[in-house]
Amino acid sequence: MCSMNKNTSKLNFFWFIPTHGDGSYLGSEQNQRSADYRYFCEIARAVDRLGYQGVLLPTGQSCDDSWIIASALAVETERLKFLVALRPGGIMPVYAARQTAALDRLSDGRLLINIVVGGNPIELAADGIFTPHDERYSQASEFFNIWNHLLAGDHVDYSGHYYRVDEARLDLLPKQKSIPLFFGGSSDAGIEFAAKNVEEYLTWGEPIRQVEEKIARVQTKAQAEGRNISFGIRLHFIVRDTEEEAWAAAEKLISKVTDDQIAKAQERFLKQMDSVGQRVMAELHGGRRDRLIIGKNLWAGIGLVRTGAGTALVGTPQQVAERLFEYQQAGINTIIGSGYPHLEEAYRVAETLFPVLKLDADSTQRRNIMSSEFMLSDYGVVRRSA
Fold first, then answer.
1. pTM of this prediction?
2. 67-104 burial, b for 16+ CB within 10 Å, e for fewer?
3. pLDDT tens digits, residue range 98-127?
4. C-alpha distance from residue 192 to each of 198, 216, 227, 312 (Å)
5. Taking a C-beta distance cutoff of 8 angstroms, is the pair 251, 293 a contact?
6. Is the distance from CB of 375 to CB of 29 less than 8 angstroms?
7. ∠ CA 147-152-158 to the nearest 5 degrees?
8. CA-CA distance, 68 to 28, in Å (whole number)?
9. 3-state secondary structure (DSSP) of residue 147
10. What letters, b where the CB count within 10 A reaches 16 and e where it falls short, cover 208-235?
11. Is the peptide bond before 341 cis (omega within 30 degrees of 0)?
12. Are 150 and 83 in contact (CB under 8 A)?
């Protein structure tokens, strides 16, 4: 049993808003939930109340626009931070800076930016972006040079390879003095970009040794730039009272996925996409159902058909906490979690895993608990939590 007392700081725990849809099974329309704003509100309100620090909103052809959804959810929540995708190749930096400042003010300083340069050339081409992989990072560097200066209140004259602006400025600035930049990219070009530009580097849920090696690479590059970077990890969670229940839930999640669906998804991941991180995710299991356990309590079944984050921690609350503690010891301080379906699993993770991680909701969110059939105390007695 691990001792959570060894941690030097508490983990930041974010959740996920499934703007591409949700459900109980992968690869099936059975029990599927559409991308419905009212459902997003249910999830956002729940995770705000349960003590999650923030939510990630995805981006892509299959997703509702993350900026519009975040703007709407900001007024539905009180403390929740919004990690919103900014794709520098598809928008001009001055306009993006105006949007950023507006959303930060609207959310009362709860905006975080997730830089996504894109990893699928076919999807990028549909958006009118034809820039090669490594060059996308060169363009992003120019973009955020302009963007950062504008949000700092500077007047900007800039002439580069990709952008030129004359006397650009923002008359309305964000609430935050500096808006944190998050980013995940496993290629050499991506790591070089991260070292020079971002505050938090994100990795998908690879085995612990691979995560340690990646963190070491990024740290070395960042230190050479005279910078310090924090680290986060994107994982799914399947937490149950017993290990047997957890693994049964994992198998149930992919029980309707067909071999044809797996083959088509893997071909898309490996042949259509130029993302190094996506290739690593696909190679963890090679599209094979008999190679899904890739580490202790680490399962790659979701990555059989899902792009991006494809691994889950599977087990009891104590087992999952032990794995998270190992990632934290490697340098991870932010967890961006999800689970299917996302509303129910947000409750399950908060109610079963948070207490083990010492991540109970803030005292202002704790409620008076009245005795009922769920309590052992006398009927009608109100118990006040500490």
1. 0.90
2. bebbbebbeebeebbbbbbbbbbeeebbebbbebbbbb
3. 999 999 999 999 999 999 998 778 888 888
4. 10, 13, 12, 28
5. no
6. no
7. 45
8. 28
9. helix
10. bebbbebbebbbebbeeeeeebbbbbbb
11. yes
12. no
Longest dimension (CA), the chain: 73
Long-range contact pairs involving 19-22 (C-beta distance under 8 Å, separation at least 24): 19/57, 19/58, 19/63, 19/64, 19/66, 19/69, 20/58, 20/60, 20/62, 20/63, 20/64, 21/62, 22/340, 22/341, 22/342, 22/343
Is there a contact between 159 and 122 (Cβ–Cβ < 8 Å)? Answer: no
Helix (H) or strand (E) holding 55: strand 54-57
User: Which single residue is written with the structure tokens 């003095």?
Assistant: 177
- Alpha carbon distance 140, 137 (integer Å): 5
pLDDT digit string (tens) for 311-337? 999 999 999 999 999 999 999 999 999
End-to-end CA distance of the chain: give it in Å, rounded: 26
